[in-house]
Specification:
Layout (H helix, E strand, L loop, with lengths): L3 E5 L15 E12 L3 E12 L11 E10 L4 E9 L7 E15 L29 E17 L2 E18 L16 H7 L10 E14 L10 E11 L10 E15 L3 E15 L40 E18 L2 E18 L13 H4 L8 E12 L3 E10 L7 E7 L4
Antiparallel strand pairs: 1-2, 2-3, 2-17, 3-4, 4-5, 5-6, 6-7, 7-8, 8-9, 9-10, 10-11, 11-12, 12-13, 13-14, 14-15, 15-16, 16-17
Length: 429
Amino acid sequence: MAALGLSALAHGATPDGTFRKTGFSFGVLPSIAFDQDAGFQYGALTNLYWYGDGSNYPRYNHSLYLEASRCLSGATLLRANYDTRTLLPHARLRADVTWYDDVSLDFFGFNGYKAVYNADYADEDAADYRTRVFYNHQRKMFRAMVNYGTTFRRSPHVNWQAGIVAFNMQISRVHFGRLAKSAPDVPTLYDKYVGWGILRPSEADGGFDAYVRAGIGYDTRDSESFPTAGVWTEALLAVAPSFFSSDANEYGKLTVYHRQYFDLHRGDLVLAYRLGWQHRLWGRTPFYLLPHWNTSVLTAATSQGLGGSKTLRGIKRHRVVADGSVMANVELRYIFARFGVAGQQVALGTNLFADMGLTTQEYDIDTSAVPDDERPLYFRTSADAPHWSGGLGLKVALNSNFVVSVDYGHAFDERDGTSGFYVLMNYLF
């Protein structure tokens, strides 16, 4: 993995000795990234920034993020994300368009530990081996998002926002001929859930859904991409009307986040934590949108939980999927080097972290068609329990905005997997 930063119209230190970025800058991350869940990724991404006269640095006036990549597994990602504070007067506008063909998306069932995970089913060396893609299915996702927000003039730290998010999902079993040629073509967990009627026929192969979003937030962070002090709290309401759904799905969800940052030593040692809670208020969520968490800012191609690189590092992706859940992340971040290169400000850092997730509202499923002899193999009646993981990482930041993140997480319970290694963009929060 290599990161390359280039700039034009760039200035370094101002007369008072402080660094101020002006004009145009961009970072390029070519060729290779890695996500334990998706595998090796190759392609290219870039983030273009316009800082204007630099008076708002480290804030930018415009940001355009572009990515085109493909994983060795065959997954394909195309994404464009735009963020501006100056296009509209006194307002912030964000827009995102993403196409993501994930040929081996994890699927473990619902409600955390109530869904049994048996690693042997996907282990070719185990006596109980079935197929290495037993806990996978294919998902093609198109997502478009627009979000408008602004602060209150008398309370500049308080903001409100509104937007719309639309999805078109195509769900199917894993393509054995392309992805798993050497694996036994036997029923996967997804196939079993379809056969048992747990996944409703009208949504088992995906569909179109959209929701409108409204929210209010409180933000005192000293920096968005590289915060060292302050709080960032949001309450977001998502309403999905039936006429926005191909299957007449209708639901409402409340999502609350609280993030706080403590400067322990001159901006180089920071204690940060994030708490998140999502709860269905009414209606029924299609199963393929259960992992989606409503968010005002996309720091990655997807906003999904719980499990994986952006929520519970080291725990299997989508291991904790339910109507309602909570998550907690704690990080101790340390910047051990800062230096300038070709008019750019570079920072090197590390982080220790602990992550936790828990089901708080179960997704109602009908298991009456499951044969009695198979029921204990896939379902437990005991309640869910906290899912814990921990680990460490390395960060490389360019101009406090373009951040390359390397994290290694270890799951504390074998029912969640073993570990995960991720090379991605941005801090987790």
